[in-house]
Specification:
alpha/beta, five-stranded parallel sheet, 10 helices, binds adenosine-5'-triphosphate, binds magnesium ion
């Protein structure tokens, strides 16, 4: 599949405005994202790699980047650019998803599952639960995932969403699959919204960037 086909970018889930844009195309790419790009062979090991080919220092395997900051600071833009750069350079698969979309699809899929179990909903319901199962498998196995806007879902689906994000992130870290997270939550808030152990795990599994600077959206209006 060629990079010029819109299918390539669409199946990665990337917002159209970010298609093809790499870190090098941005004015001030975050150093931690450049590091993730350069250090990728120490962060991710392809599935069929024998143990003797693992890096001698395994401490960074699965380590991703968390971009935390106020709205409009370019977090999503930068995360997408890192995804594009790494997937192109290392020929690995990547995926972008807004966390609230994932939680919403998951909740919907549960409802449909119940219907299907009762013999309701027909082919359409079966097909949709299968589509969601495929998506979820992808989120758990894709070499690089951007999980956008974590924390915003909280007002609506608190405990449940917190559990989903924790399970997904811990699994990916153990499986040597780095994740890039964007969030409006700050360090302390992260612990308040999720829990202490998730907050402490986050310190281990992510290079954390506190994004400051002007709001690009405010500047453009
Ligand atoms: N380096 C940049 N120079 C100019 N404009 C930028 C830059 N980075 C991002 N923008 C623009 O600023 C707007 C906000 O960027 P983006 O969506 O990445 O911010 P965000 O930090 O993810 O915001 P939110 O927290 O609301 O999700 C977008 O329209 C984007 O195109
Ligand atoms: Mg964003």
């Amino acid at each position: 599949m060629t990079v010029n086909s819109s299918y390539y970018w669409r199946q990665m889930g990337l917002p159209g405005r970010t298609w093809g844009i790499r870190l090098g195309d941005l004015d001030e790419p975050f150093q931690e994202l450049i590091d993730l790009h350069l250090d990728w062979p120490n962060r991710h090991i392809p599935q069929d790699t024998p143990l003797h080919q693992f890096p001698s220092d395994r401490s960074r395997l699965g380590r991703g980047v968390m971009l935390s900051g106020e709205p409009g600071r370019g977090k999503t833009t930068q995360a997408c650019a890192a995804l594009v750069s790494i997937c192109r350079k290392y020929q690995v698969d990547g995926h972008f998803i807004r966390f609230s979309d994932y939680v919403q699809s998951k909740t919907k899929s549960f409802t449909l599952h119940n219907k299907v179990d009762k013999g309701l909903g027909g082919e359409a319901a079966i097909a949709e639960t299968e589509r969601f199962a495929e998506l979820e498998t992808r989120l758990y196995t894709v070499p690089l995932l951007v999980l956008d806007d974590v924390g915003k879902e909280h007002r609506t689906a608190s405990g449940y969403a917190a559990q989903q994000v924790t399970t997904l992130l811990r699994h990916r870290h153990d499986a040597m699959l780095p994740t890039i997270i964007t969030t409006n939550l700050r360090g302390g808030e992260w612990a308040a919204v999720y829990d202490e152990s998730t907050a402490s795990f986050a310190m281990e599994a992510f290079d954390i960037v506190y994004v400051s600077g002007p709001d690009y959206r405010a500047a453009s209006t």
